[in-house]
Amino acid sequence: MSRFYPDAPRVGVSVLCLKDNKALMIKRGKEPYLGHWSLPGGLVELGETLKQAAARELLEETGVQAALGEPVETFDSIDRDEHGKVVTHFILTVFRGSYLSGSALAGDDAADVAWVHTDDLENRPTTPGTPERIRRLMLV
């Protein structure tokens, strides 16, 4: 099923990985939101649990492993075109975890990767709601 103009929502995950009071972020290398900074993540594969998908996507996109807990948030990301037709619809579950190992390097769908302090979130283009989500979930 296509990510664009799908006939059903796509299920995805993202990870708030924390180290030294900074969040690991990726610069998106593909649409939607090409060039915007976001939490690492992606789509759940058939037969994979949400947590397995989160760990896999984090490792594939950043080379990092984290101690993931239970999900901390689930939300809809729906974009419509000028005619009101759904362009993308993702149901995203966010996991939070502390850095365990690995050197942060951009891989898979990521064009870049960075450890970002909350004071620096406004200095870069981000996917909708990402700065607020990071600040809120860092307190969980």
TrEMBL record:
Residues 8-139 form the Nudix hydrolase domain. InterPro entries: Nudix_hydrolase (IPR020476), NUDIX_hydrolase-like_dom_sf (IPR015797), NUDIX_hydrolase_CS (IPR020084), NUDIX_hydrolase_dom (IPR000086). The keyword Hydrolase applies. Pfam families: NUDIX (PF00293). GO terms for molecular function: hydrolase activity. Its cofactor is Mg(2+). Gene3D superfamilies: Nucleoside Triphosphate Pyrophosphohydrolase. It comes from the Bacteria. CDD domains: NUDIX_ADPRase (cd04673). PROSITE patterns: NUDIX (PS51462), NUDIX_BOX (PS00893). Keywords: Hydrolase. The keyword Hydrolase applies. Coiled coil: none annotated. Belongs to the Nudix hydrolase family. PANTHER family: ADP-RIBOSE PYROPHOSPHATASE, DIHYDRONEOPTERIN TRIPHOSPHATE DIPHOSPHATASE. This is NUDIX hydrolase.
